[in-house]
Amino acid sequence: MKKEEYFMRLAIEEAKKAADQEEVPIGAIAVYRDQVIGRGYNLRERTNDATSHAEMQAIRGANKFLNNWRLRDVDLYVTLEPCSMCAGAIVLSRIRCVYYGASDPKAGAAGSLMNLLQDDRLNHVCEVVSGVLKEENQKLLKDFFKDLRKKRKINSRKHLR
Amino acid sequence: MKKEEYFMRLAIEEAKKAADQEEVPIGAIAVYRDQVIGRGYNLRERTNDATSHAEMQAIRGANKFLNNWRLRDVDLYVTLEPCSMCAGAIVLSRIRCVYYGASDPKAGAAGSLMNLLQDDRLNHVCEVVSGVLKEENQKLLKDFFKDLRKKRKINSRKHLR
């Protein structure tokens, strides 16, 4: 298995932890010298914290592990294209390379709506590799929302009785 | 005193707490129905956390206070124009209005480099009021960096002895 697929599978494992808690399944992993030093998954609903995205937790974990806010030789693997908040945090922490799975045409800030990771007016420019295990990552989100719609339908039927 | 100046002065008080800890003085306050429900100041160096910006702490405080990730009737007062991470977090949390003091021509994402707070492709658009106590906020940062350069000069002299 290619290294980037190996680490993306670990990010997918994180995303599944979110789905298990009925959160939108997005997961992230921070890697330093082939070692996982930060991980996270979306927990917005459960924590009621708008900033509780997978990437933010993985970055904070890596900051803590290295005892440094600069993550110069750290790579980030994330199942969905980062939003502008997370892309901003990635640039601020000087992450080397971002590997992401599915694109986010509605809010993606790493190539879709904008590309904050490679805006040379900012004080750091990342490498970006998109579409890592793309189909698998797209399916993960698609299945989650399909399931959610099904559950909502059942709940609204219950309500009618 | 105008209401926006009153709350901006509270944000300046937060910024001064950062300066007292030798952090770049940036402060923020979250206000809901004229009540301060979140506050924060820049603590990047002390916490070694790249995401430890004033606005992020104020938003998380407000999320906690309201037990809700949606901050629909919440206003944010911040001494410096938000960066792209913080602007992203502001949009994600649906903050109503952002009042900021000094502009940031190097990294400002609320009008200077870009305007993420008013990008109608995203799922929320904020009101923005810039230049609140502008001179005072500019001076706060200018004095801090002047002082820092002075200290560094003394330290490098010490080093030469």
Task: Give a quick summary of the entry.
Chains A, B: It holds the Pfam family MafB19-deam. Chains A, B: The active site is at 55 (proton donor). Chain A is of the alpha/beta class.
- Strand sequence of the main sheet of chain A, in spatial order? 2-1-3-4-5
The radius of gyration computed from the alpha-carbon positions of chain A, rounded to a whole number of angstroms, is 16 Å
Q: Tell me the count of domains of chain A.
A: 1
Name the biggest interface: A-B, 40 and 40 residues
The strand count of chain A comes to 5
Helix share of residues of chain A? 40-55%
What is the CATH superfamily of chain A? Cytidine Deaminase, domain 2
* Shape assignment of chain A: globular
Examine the secondary-structure arrangement and name the CATH architecture of chain A: 3-Layer(aba) Sandwich
CATH topology of chain A: Cytidine Deaminase, domain 2
Report the order of strands and helices of chain A: HEEHHEHEEH
- CATH top level of chain A? Alpha Beta
How does the major sheet of chain A shape up?
Answer: 5 strands, mixed
Number of helices of chain A: 5
Low-confidence stretches of chain A: none
**Spatial separation of the terminal alpha carbons of chain A:** 52 Å
Mean pLDDT of chain A: 95
Structural class, from helix and strand content of chain A? alpha/beta
Outline the structure in words.
- Chains A, B: Residues 2-113 form the CMP/dCMP-type deaminase domain.
- Chains A, B: Keywords: Hydrolase, Metal-binding, tRNA processing, Zinc.
- Chains A, B: InterPro entries: APOBEC/CMP_deaminase_Zn-bd (IPR016192), CMP_dCMP_dom (IPR002125), Cytidine_deaminase-like (IPR016193), MafB19-deam (IPR058535), tRNA_aden_deaminase (IPR028883).
- Chains A, B: Catalyzes the deamination of adenosine to inosine at the wobble position 34 of tRNA(Arg2).
- Chains A, B: Homodimer.
- Two copies of one chain form a homodimer.
- The first copy, chain A, has 161 residues and is an alpha/beta fold.
- Chain A has a single domain, classed as 3-Layer(aba) Sandwich (Cytidine Deaminase, domain 2).
- Helices cover 44% and strands 18% of the residues of chain A.
- Chain A has helices at 3-20, 44-47, 54-66, 84-92, 134-160; strands spanning 27-32, 35-41, 74-80, 97-102, 127-129.
- Chain A has a five-stranded mixed beta sheet with strand order 2-1-3-4-5.
- In chain A, a hairpin with a 2-residue loop joins strand 1 (27-32) and strand 2.
- The first copy, chain A, is globular and about 55 Å long.
- Chain A binds chain B through residues 44-45, 47-52, 56, 59-60, 63-64, 66-71, 83-89, 91-94, 106-107, 109, 113-114, 116, 119, 121-123, and chain B through 44-45, 47-52, 56, 59-60, 63-64, 66-71, 83-89, 91-94, 106-107, 109, 113-114, 116, 119, 121-123.
